[in-house]
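Quick one, T. Sequence first:
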Amino acid sequence: MERLRVRSRNGPARDDPVRHPRHPPLCAKRPAVSPPVRMKFSVNWLREFVDLPENPEEIADLLTRAGVETQNIETRGARIDKVIVSQITASSRHPNADRLTVCEVDDGSGTKRQIVCGATNYKVGDKVPLALPGAKLPDGTEIKKNNLRGVESEGMLCSPIELGMGEDASGLLILSPEAKIGTPIGEFFPADTILDVEVTPNRGDLLSHFGLAREIAALTEKKLKSTARESKIPVKKTGVTITSTHECPFFSARKIDNVTVGPSPQWLRIKIESVGTRSINNIVDISNFIMLELGQPTHAFDANKLNGGINVRLAREGEKFLALDGKTYSLKRDSCVVADQKRAVGIGGVMGGEETAVTDSTKNILLEAAYFLPASIRRTARELNLPSDASYRFERGVDPEMVLRASQRAIRFEENQRGQNNEMENSKLPSRFAARRRSYRRSRASLRRRKNSGNGSKPVHAFERG
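Structure tokens:
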């Protein structure tokens, strides 16, 4: 290439000096755009909030036209011929196999059946699904009378995954004690359709069933059937301190006494497992259910393992934290933590701590529901390489209106299980955060107005008070 000479004024042809010498501009690297996340939605669950077209294909087309792509449609349910409710009446070890047991089950016919089983999560008296000879399971397995290691088996006791009702293959599906022996299993588990939806990073408001139902309501000009109720319990401004108000403008904590930690009710397990979340115990499952339904992450601490009140603060440089994943992390000063009077018990909006985790022996819990600054959560999760379902939602901005509503809904579920004392405590809500809540509500409602302005219809508001 020939050299180019620039003359800024009249004069001899010569190279003019650079008038303002400086370093050449650096080519800044553009950060990678976060890929869309795929999330499963239950059509039956969505119907609890909004009327939907009968054909799931119509729902998928509606969402795709709005820029929310549906990747897959899957039909689930337990309407399988010759699968019934049975009760285990006796169990003994298999004489020729250490990992198998021989169960005697009552199928309601008046004659006991002998079933060889490899699961260990049951006890005598449990009611479980029984696939009789001649049944054909969703995965294509045909059930026949078999001889397993010298013992005849007259059918098969089923796990959730074998019935196409979840991802859990670790043990049998334990049914409600009220289930009637001999009843077809399909009467307890109606058919459902699962939408596999691709949610882009800018649509954090769609990361819940309520959020997607709200979007469908806006697109179809239908009214939401229900919304999460507002919390009516008096607020006590004691027991919680927010030192880091910028990273955490609002934090609530609710004390729940005399809980019993154990397996979740059958309906709850089926509901969360249908959208890909593994059941752990009733306390954790309720927290996951609330997040999947309303989009608000919550976290339960073992209250008896906490020392004094809660302080939401910034971490100390190099502060060590043992997380629920079993790893110890070294924190930086810009990380927001939930702490008691002795140590950090949670990385705010990212993950709880192992030392205060809920276990089978937990009797009292402290339920956290909060709003964290998205930029703070994004920075902490990336610095620690610690992504979680909670951090993904907080990074994209949760709905501030749902913080107390989600906490209230969690309490209602817990009350249904044991009906004991609840007490709520939370810190002061800063005025600037209250303004942010109002702004968020107006901006979302405005978005819905713009979507509907072209056809002269009435605006569909994003938030409706329950």
